[in-house]
Amino acid sequence: MKIAVAGSTGMVGRKLVALATAQGHEVVGLARSTGYDLLAPVGLEEALAGVDAVVDVTQGPALDEKEATEFFVTVAENLGKAASAAGVGRTVVLSIVGVDRSPDYGYYVAKLAQEEATRATAPGPLVVRATQFHEFPGQMLEWNRDGDVVRIVDVPTQPVSTDEVVALLLEAATGQVDGDVDLAGPQVERLVDLVERVVARTGERVRVEAVPAPASMAGGSMVPGPGALRRGPDWDTWFAAR
């Protein structure tokens, strides 16, 4: 198959390109560094000529709801229209578990708008929602550090391996998945606890302080429902293997 990956230079995009290539697929990388500005439709239809499936794993440049929404909707519409014109058969977009249950968190509102724009404009749309990646606690530690204190929202989460996310995205792109799907790891955790475990194991000299989260997230919107796929190792097993 010929598969286009939008956001091919990001963490998920790089892994997806590598896995698809290893399985013998032809991959078209769509990112600024490969010559494509997804916020502008110029050249996208030509890039998608002969492509069987498009996978959108782009990341928004900001957490602000308005900025993120404008980015995601614009990219989704540009990709969708170009893919339709090029005769692409299937479009897969990576989203986040809970975006439909978190109206009080702007970035999730933006991701939901991305899903809707993809369904409205893209050929053969399919949405893969994943929980937070196993890397997320370490990222939160870096993003929220303030001197010797790191402030972390107190929320339940069920983190998943990015390798499992990438594998499912490729299954969806190649037609092995029929319909939208949620993906999570095997175990529910508290995000604050995970960050504390990162600190303890790496010797970071910071104090982890729990702070209030949006009500929907504090109430469990980031945790998947009973119909979600559960794959891969739990967080402790993943972290120990790093």
Automatic annotation (TrEMBL):
All residue ranges annotated as the NAD(P)-binding domain in the record: 7-147
Domain of life of the organism encoding this protein: Bacteria
InterPro entries (alphabetical): ComplexI_NDUFA9_subunit, NAD(P)-bd_dom, NAD(P)-bd_dom_sf
Protein name, UniProt field: NAD(P)H-binding protein
